[in-house]
Amino acid sequence: MSSFDYDLFVIGGGSGGVRAARVAAALGKRVAIAEEYRFGGTCVIRGCVPKKLFVYASQYSEHFEDADGYGWRVPPARFDWNALLAAKDREIARLEGIYRRNVESSGARILDTRAELVDRHMVRLVEDGRIITADQILIATGGRPSPHPALKGHEYCITSNEAFHLATLPKAIMIGGGGYIAVEFANIFHGLGVETTLVYRGVEILNRFDDDLRAGLHEAMENKGIEIVCRAVAEEVARREDGRLDVKLSNGETRIVDQFMLAMGRSPNTEGLGLEAAGVETSATGAIVVDCYSHTSVENIWAIGDVTDRMQLTPMAIHEAMSFVETAFGGNPTAPDHDLVATAVFSQPEIGTVGLAEHEAAKALEEIEVYHAAFRPMRNTLSGRNEKMLMKLIVDAASRKVVGAHIMGPDAGEMAQLLGISLKAGVTKDDFDRTMAVHPTAAEELVTMYQPSYRVRKGDMKPRDRE
């Protein structure tokens, strides 16, 4: 019989921590899991789920506009922000309840308290000061929006956390940042009728995505009425007498808005966890350093999910949790696979992507073929909407293997999931060509681009490489 209170103690009740606790308990291990806030983590409580619900809500404004072209006469619509918040809160509470019940039914013990490491085998429960011992400890505390204390007036700003609970919908908002969170919320607020400005220090939004997607989304957002200011940052935020905000930008402009949202990265939740006391190594950004098996610098302490800053995606945290249990308790050392992971940006239009962007493939491979199509999807014809859809395949010319697939348009995320399976299986462009199209669909374009739009040789695309 073990001398420890538990075989596994999990700190953090998000998707990764809950999955690890449930699976380990199902193996007969004695498991406890501590969560200081609400079960479900960032994704369920203040991330993916409420954000996607807000995306759906914001799309209705365009749906109402498009309906006329299809014969529907829709009376003037009225949006109720408080009704959306209440509906969102009910759904989040329902999902949180499912998370808790799943943990309880697995046999793991739930502790509604913050937990801190005392040493490599001891954990202190902040709620009552009790000390718990465990053979193995898993840290899955996730991340949070990065603070920006250097910004004068940062105390007047909100982050994505607060955006889900605003008492009133602002009439005008400025969002600082150019990543997927900033882009998604810019589209959400605009769709809900808010005058929206995005300010980003870089040359173009969505750094590290394929350049055609970045430029295409930028154009589409501006055509909708979202103002995008690149090569600029907020230097000062000041509260006006009327409660609104003056935002001074580095380009010399000053804008007046109701809210300024900071969306410039996320930071791991490692402060106050007792990592130093236990000897757990962290990086310069505060992320927990792990090896390929999610081991920390301490043999019996592990970490998964956003707190490790490897790949901040909910499905990846769950995958890392499953791999951890296999390694720690299954006698089967399993390294989580971070390669060829499909992702989506729930912008409007949506982006779905998997594999290498064109510029990445051009640097890595001797020669690539690029298949590119931009077209007006059928749903936009009768509605009169001019928004284009973009599809792009990147192919290794030597092996004919498809190494990247990128889509911008309706349901791009859904398509990316299926493309992820294809690329993971190592399919070639010839496999795409042999696949019969489903007609009429937008996705059929993926299997009917028979000739490359151009080639890139030795990482240097020149006009003669284009066909």
UniProtKB/TrEMBL annotation:
A single Gene Ontology CC term: cytosol
Active site: 439
Sites where the protein binds FAD: 52, 306
PROSITE patterns (UniProt xref): PYRIDINE_REDOX_1
UniProt-listed Enzyme Commission number(s): 1.8.1.7
InterPro entries, per database record: FAD/NAD-bd_sf, FAD/NAD-binding_dom, FAD/NAD-linked_Rdtase_dimer_sf, GSHR, GSHR/TRXR-like, Pyr_nuc-diS_OxRdtase, Pyr_nucl-diS_OxRdtase_dimer, Pyr_OxRdtase_I_AS
Keyword terms, alphabetized: Disulfide bond, FAD, Flavoprotein, NAD, NADP, Nucleotide-binding, Oxidoreductase, Redox-active center
Pfam families, per the entry: Pyr_redox_2, Pyr_redox_dim
Reactions accelerated catalytically: 2 glutathione + NADP(+) = glutathione disulfide + NADPH + H(+)
Domain FAD/NAD(P)-binding: start-end pairs: 6-321
Free-text cofactor note: Binds 1 FAD per subunit.
UniProt family annotation: Belongs to the class-I pyridine nucleotide-disulfide oxidoreductase family.
Quaternary structure annotation from Swiss-Prot or TrEMBL: Homodimer.
Protein name: Glutathione reductase
Organism phylogeny: Bacteria, Pseudomonadati, Pseudomonadota, Alphaproteobacteria, Hyphomicrobiales
